[in-house]
Amino acid sequence: MQFTFMTATIEIQNLTKRYGERIAVDKLNLTVNQGDIFGFIGPNGAGKTSTMRMVAGLLRPNSGAIKVAGYSVAKSPERVKAQIGYMPDYFGVYPDLKVWEYLDFFSACYKIPEGQRPSLLDGLLELVDLGHRKQDIVDSLSRGLKQRLSLARTLIHDPQVLILDEPAAGLDPRARVEIRELLVELAAMGKTIFFSSHILADVAEICTRVGIIEAGKLVAVGKLDELHLQIMPRRRVEITVLGKLEEALELLKSVTGVVEAEALLAPKEGERRQLSIEFTGDDASLSEALAVLVQQGIPVLHFNENLDLEEVFMRATKGLVT
């Protein structure tokens, strides 16, 4: 059966999930836009996995509505499944299958014609850089390679929406970078990506938008710079200058919106000098700060706003669990 792909968005309205007396997801409202790399973060027990499983149609909510690419998860589950590739936070056990057999098995589950499978599997293995491990036993792969293989499996039916639960959990730094690069590549191919993670650096690096959930409630959502301004009205900007440290400090203190300016290092003559300002103004005022330094002949080597997702997360959450 062929389905016509619609706008690849996720729309969640008043979603609630209870386990007995415990409320795991509490009247959650969230939209993931087409083309987003959306990072879903929160403490353990916050409701991330329950939410993602409900979006994927694997868990029935107590109330609320979910649409994926315009289709209702409750009313049109088959159409939703055609749009979604779901990757759980565990791989499963397939000790005796070879890599290509693993993908071939799932290709059959998705009713991919047998004659189309060899080229499809080769393309997927090339995409996740596993072509050279095609004949290996799945159980012999490292955790990082298993995560790549699991990601290839989610792509078998060419879904428009990827729902990935902790795709980089337990990986070494190199494997994390490789998974991160894969997600960016998939987004460039037009996929909408909704993934959870405890690795805030990865979220900050690649996500177009972020949602923070705690005790089943969405406490903040938006682009990282928007969340930073919303939760931490004072922006921190780091500036590296070459010489004229005291003059730079006095100039910055005169700029509208600068509430504090200080030297980060005690440099020696002729060395780079780092400054930090606490800033409450808008982008235009921030641009003015840089312009003032340049106009007065201060050699500026680096000018960077420090958007710290970890600090945003800690301020937005209270350590609650459901």
Structure description:
- This protein has about 325 residues and is an alpha/beta fold.
- The protein has 2 domains: about 10-220, P-loop containing nucleotide triphosphate hydrolases (Rossmann fold, 3-Layer(aba) Sandwich); about 235-305, 2-Layer Sandwich (Alpha-Beta Plaits), CATH 3.30.70.260.
- Helices cover about 35% and strands about 25% of the residues.
- A 6-stranded mixed beta sheet has the order 6-7-8-3-9-10, sandwiched between helices.
- Strand 7, helix 6 (about 175-190) and strand 8 (about 190-195) form a beta-alpha-beta unit.
- The radius of gyration is 24 Å and the shape is globular.
- It starts with 9 loop residues before the first strand and ends in a 6-residue tail after the last helix.
- Mean pLDDT is about 90; it is low at about 1-5.
Topology summary:
Blueprint: E1 10-19, E2 22-32, E3 37-41, H1 48-55, E4 63-68, E5 71-72, H2 77-83, E6 84-87, H3 99-109, H4 117-127, H5 143-154, E7 161-165, H6 173-188, E8 192-196, H7 200-206, E9 209-214, E10 217-222, H8 224-231, E11 235-242, H9 245-253, E12 258-263, E13 272-279, H10 283-295, E14 300-305, H11 309-316
Parallel strand pairs: 3-8, 3-9, 6-7, 7-8
Antiparallel strand pairs: 1-2, 1-4, 4-5, 9-10, 11-13, 11-14, 12-13
